[in-house]
Design brief:
43% of the residues lie in helices and 17% in strands. With 166 residues, it is of the alpha/beta class. It has one domain: HUPs (Rossmann fold, 3-Layer(aba) Sandwich), CATH 3.40.50.620.
């Protein structure tokens, strides 16, 4: 009998992009359960609160039957162990991501050797999308509809307006 394999897809998801969604879809094809782990982001100043990012992630991933959304803070190692995960999913958009992600995978291998890091690349049309670019475009009143789920686009417009940046 095969093992039930749980994968963790960690990130700040500030906001979740179409590239993130594509990685989730791909991970669902490989693993029995995918946990989208929304990081509290203690080292980053997030545009959206943790609760807002989790709510958006939950709404976006409802169509995937074996995806759950949870939050964590502190070391990813502790979250991976608490969930019994055997894989950590990381997205690679370009060669520029590789150096950082390779180092991170090596560190995670030392911290949580029972879990393997699995790199997935998004579909071609999503390889250039980053949350940072999306936030910047939205903040400067640009159209982000092609880069994010309609729910996220609406939330971005509301958030920017509420901050008086529109």
């Amino acid at each position: 009998m095969a093992n039930h394999v749980i994968a963790i897809y960690p990130g700040t998801f500030d906001p979740m992009t179409s590239g993130h969604e594509d990685i989730i879809r791909r991970a669902c094809e490989l693993f029995d359960t995918v946990i989208v782990a929304v990081a509290a982001g203690h080292h980053k100043k997030a545009l959206f609160t943790l609760a807002e990012r989790m709510d958006m992630a939950r709404q976006i991933t409802t169509r995937y039957g074996h995806v759950t959304v949870d939050s964590y803070q502190g070391l990813l190692r502790d979250f991976v162990r608490a969930k019994g995960a055997k894989a950590i999913v990381r997205g690679l958009r370009a060669v520029s991501d590789f150096d950082y992600e390779f180092q991170l995978a090596g560190m995670n291998r030392k911290l949580v050797p029972e879990a393997e890091t699995v790199f997935l690349t998004p579909s071609d049309q999503y390889q250039f999308i980053s949350s940072t670019f999306v936030r910047e475009i939205a903040t400067l009143s640009g159209d982000v509809d092609a880069f994010v789920n309609p729910l996220v686009a609406q939330a971005l417009r509301a958030k920017i307006a509420s901050l008086g940046r529109e």
